[in-house]
Amino acid sequence: MEAEGIATSAISAFESTFQSLVSGNTGLIPESTISPAPDLVESENFTGDADTSYLSKTVVLKLNGGLGTGMGLDKAKSLLTVKGNDTFLDLTAKQIIEMRKEFGMKVKFMLMNSFSTSEDTLNFFKENYPELAAEDGLEMMQNKVPKLDAETLEPATCATDPSNEWCPPGHGDLYAALEGSGCLDALLKDGYKYMFVSNSDNLGATLDLDILSYFAKADAPFTMECCKRTVNDKKGGHLAKRVTDGQLILRESAMCADEDEEAFQDISKHRFFNTNNLWIRLDKLKEIINASGGFIPLPMIKNKKTVDPKNDSSQKVVQLETAMGAAIECFKGATAIVVPRTRFAPVKKCNDLLLLRSDAYILVNNKPVLNPACGGKAPTMALDSKKYKFVGALEEATEGGIPSLVECEELKVSGLVRMSRGTKFVGKVEIVNNSDEAKFVPCGTVTGKLDLTDAVGAGPLKPTVVKTAPIEGQKPGTSGLRKKTKEFMSPNYLENFVQAAYESIKESGTNLSEGSLLIGGDGRYYNPEATQIIIKMAVANGAKRIWVGENGLMSTPAISATIREKGPAWQKAYGAFILTASHNPGGPDEDFG
Questions:
Q1: Helix or strand or coil: residue 474?
Q2: Under CATH, what is the fold of the domain 350-451?
Q3: Where is the Alpha-D-phosphohexomutase alpha/beta/alpha domain (predicted)?
Q4: Are 201 and 88 in contact (CB under 8 A)?
Q5: Which of 65, 123, 517, 522 is most buried, with most CB under 10 Å away?
Q6: 358-400 tens-digit pLDDT
Q7: DSSP string, 519-570
Q8: Which residues contact 319 (CB under 8 A, 6 or more apart)?
């Protein structure tokens, strides 16, 4: 670690967790040693005491070290598109910029990046938010620690990729990174006193002036935002009070003995969980670091992995991590408050991502909030965990757009499906597909149970991308595009024109999943071959429904009449390719259009 230039504070913190590992410390917190956390103050009661003067002394820091490997990502998770065209970082940046405008002061913004996310993140800010990218101290780097051989506890090796020998030490590294990088001293020197920290994937965690004012006036060294546990939260960690000294602590599931499991999951007893939204007094943090020998000793978290995360057969390793919320036990006088669930909206699974992308959430001041039309309760999501573990699978399932969830109570999906913006889920919905082939969920209102197992499949079609160049003179006139048949039959000629047409209609906002494409012609030479090419091009461009005249034959007036037909959205045509050259003769040496 010294050879890698890692700071002394980070090395000391790693030594502390390593000693816990080799000493056999279980890290268990028996039920007999704790009592339930007391009643907590609720932030929704903070009104009328907001003081903007605290903003100039406050730093907003987002934890941005995660790659989102659990969702199949190989880049910063915060660069994932979550609402419209906006990523997590887009919305966070817009929140900061808007707050600065609203209060007329420069609220300091920082990111704790990892060696895996730094380059992508900084490039993103340079391209999209140059005013933030140019600020001093935007980035603070998370440290890295060696992975350990699971048997020998020696540093692991990976000859194929030495970078796999290292891992982030968890967000508990926040304190060592602040100290070791010199950021903590620099912030104190510049007059900063308060820091608000949250995860980059939690868009509900905005800088709340009421909470900041409460924290500052309470003169607490550390305040944790908590939410009330529900049945869905019973297996997660909880806040508690240590019997010996009354200190608030966190007990995670890994810290609970088997015999205490029932008490651990009793949400009427242990009522609060950590949102990982923390408020820290920087001067008090410095005092504790100095008193503890240059780092904050945090409980060890032991994760069993493989040295190559993409190769399950590679060397078994142990990764040592710590959690930043665990520091609550290190701050004498630390407090906790209850916040509404709107401040805890992390995206951990594709369930969360689909819900956030849907109309069940709307943006208010660049913050996702539950659509009022949902009646105060978000739909319960249960996508097939095997089929939709990774974002790529969700992207494929929603290629036709995101279905409406605003009137949905529950959505359960089993098997591979293809959804579109033309579908509206209402009430309790269960979609079942027991076949191996993806099936389309129909447009229109869907409610109750829908078994698609025997429905026509989406098919294993995979578009091929072919690079071509523009063809000189290929542009339609008043009667469309008309050329000699041989010119149409030349390499990529028809394909180029069809692709150009689709690029145009997609750019204009046409919803390809809702309408149909019509294809028909007068039966002249090359009509069947051209029809096949257009069908393939249309499907590759996202067309979901295509009408073709029988044997490819359909007159121009018939196509015109069909386009004007009324009916459900899927019956309406967004356009047609008519294969004709009017009265001109057809044939290999004649005309095509």
A1: coil
A2: UDP N-Acetylglucosamine Acyltransferase; domain 1 (2.160.10)
A3: 474-588
A4: yes
A5: 65
A6: 999 999 999 999 999 999 999 999 999 999 999 999 999 998 8
A7: EEE---TTHHHHHHHHHHHHHHTT---EEEEEEEE--HHHHHHHHT--SSGG
A8: 145, 147, 148, 167, 302, 303, 304, 305
pLDDT at 570 over 70: no
460: tokens are 């294993």
Stretch (H or E) spanning 40: none
> What is the structure's pLDDT at 140?
97
DSSP β-ladder status, 417-418 and 439-440: parallel
CATH 3.40.120.10 fits 483-592, yes or no: yes
User: Is residue 465 predicted with pLDDT exceeding 90?
Assistant: no
pLDDT for res 75: 85
Residue 377 to residues 260, 341, 437, Cα–Cα distance (Å): 32, 11, 33
**Sheet architecture: strand order including 335-338:** 41-42, 335-338, 222-228, 272-281, 194-199, 58-64, 108-113, 139-141
Specify whether the CB–CB gap between 58 and 107 falls below 8 A: yes
CA distance 57 to 317: 42
Q: What is the token pair recorded at 337? A: 């408050």
We find that the CATH architecture of domain 8-223+231-343 is Alpha-Beta Complex (3.90)
H or E segment and range at residue 8? helix 8-22
Query: Kindly report the CA angle at 46 between 41 and 48, in degrees rounded to 5?
Result: 155
- The mean of the pLDDT values for the chain is 93
Phi, psi for 197 (deg, rounded to 5): -120, 140
Residue 420 DSSP label:
B
User: Domain spans of the chain?
Assistant: 8-223+231-343, 350-451, 483-592
Q: How many CB atoms lie within 10 A of CB 433?
A: 26
- Residues with active-site annotation: 348
Closest CA to 238 of 336, 346, 348: 336
Bin 276: left if φ > 0, else alpha if -120 < ψ < 50, else beta: left
The confidence score (pLDDT) of residue 460 equals 63
Distance between CA 41 and CA 497 in Å, rounded? 65
391: helix, strand or coil: helix
Q: What is the pLDDT of residues 189-245, one digit of tens each?
A: 999 999 999 999 999 999 999 999 999 999 999 999 999 999 888 888 899 999 999
C-alpha–C-alpha distance, residues 121 and 133, integer Å: 10
Query: Is a pLDDT exceeding 70 seen at residue 429?
Result: yes
Say how many C-beta atoms besides its own lie within 10 A of residue 352's C-beta.
17
3-state secondary structure of 410: strand
Rounded to 5 degrees, what angle do the CA atoms 250, 92, 112 make? Answer: 55
Domains 8-223+231-343 and 483-592 share a fold: no
What's the per-residue H, E or C state across 144-165?
Answer: CEECEECCCCCECCCCCCHHHH
